Amino acid sequence: MSSKDLVEIVFHGRGGQGSVTAANLFVAAALKDGNIGVQAFPFFGAERRGAPVRAFARISGGEIHLRSEIYTPDIVIVLDESIMGIVDVLKGLKKDGIVLINTTKKSEDFGFSKKYNVATIDATGIALKHDILVGGIPVVNTPILGAIPKILDRVTLKSIQNVIKNKWKGEGGETNMKAAQDAYDEVEVNF
């Protein structure tokens, strides 16, 4: 396995937004798309709903022997823009790294967009549009997943929608699949 073949992703969010579920669904979709090696795991401390949370995902065309936290990600996915003020989400991001941010802003609104590749999506707006809420709080994991195929060609929207459909049966699955489709259609990628 070449180091180019391995893709490492860190999901930054808040407890209750679905960061861990997003990482798990992402690797399930990656497996469907022929990535033989997949890993997803959370980093937990004393988190509670609303506290900063990290989840990790690795995909590869071969076996993955690493078992550590991800320190130099290829991609950073930010499920809640407000955590960027308290967590260094760019820590260790590789030189040509990609940052996908749930925001209403444009990529050029972020000072680091000159150094990194930045994509933006209003995943919160999409979650609200589709009434994807838990306890009145928007859950943005399925919209953010829908945006990933636009920044990483190793995973398809079709596979993401299939794993969503398998996770949530019936109307819930359909609603989340539509949210993923909206994000795929609306994500702004300027690199």
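The above is record 1. Record 2 follows with the same two-line structure.
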Amino acid sequence: MTTLTICNADNSGKTEVLREFNAIAAKLKSIGVQFEKWQANKILAKDADQAAVLEAYQESVDKLNKQYGFKSIDVVSLLPDNPKKEEFRQKFLAEHTHADFEVRFFVDGSGLFYLHVNGKVYMVVCEKGDLISVPANTTHWFDMGEKPYFKCIRFFTTPEGWLGNFTGNDIATKFPSFDQHLSAVA
């Protein structure tokens, strides 16, 4: 289930948990984060390739592309049996920013974005059908869990694709992992 958990950046004090999509989207909009629900125009096989995925979401992809003029759009997936899953996971676990905004649409599976904004951490569990756009220069990190399972459409306005600027802040170590967080909000 898509959820938004908001806590103080020092992980103390009251925690707010939202489970209703419109409330989540409104709260994220207040910090400049675009959050939408998309639906495929046809049923996709679990092993659908990039072309099939993009075709199934063509209308939504085209609308977003018209708005932002992306230079690159691709589909990435990671399954629990991938031998490099821990290497991939570690790449995104440290707090970082991007000069460009980060846009991901979850075709399948799930992941947890942590957004560090204005003294708060917004933990967004994204699942199938969720699109999230993290504004440029927003400090954040991402956890796909110990047994990652997701397929995402990635959108880039720069030809280089994903380039992280790591902050050196150890804040990510002070928050629950994706797996721990899912257990707590279930």
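The radius of gyration is 16 Å.
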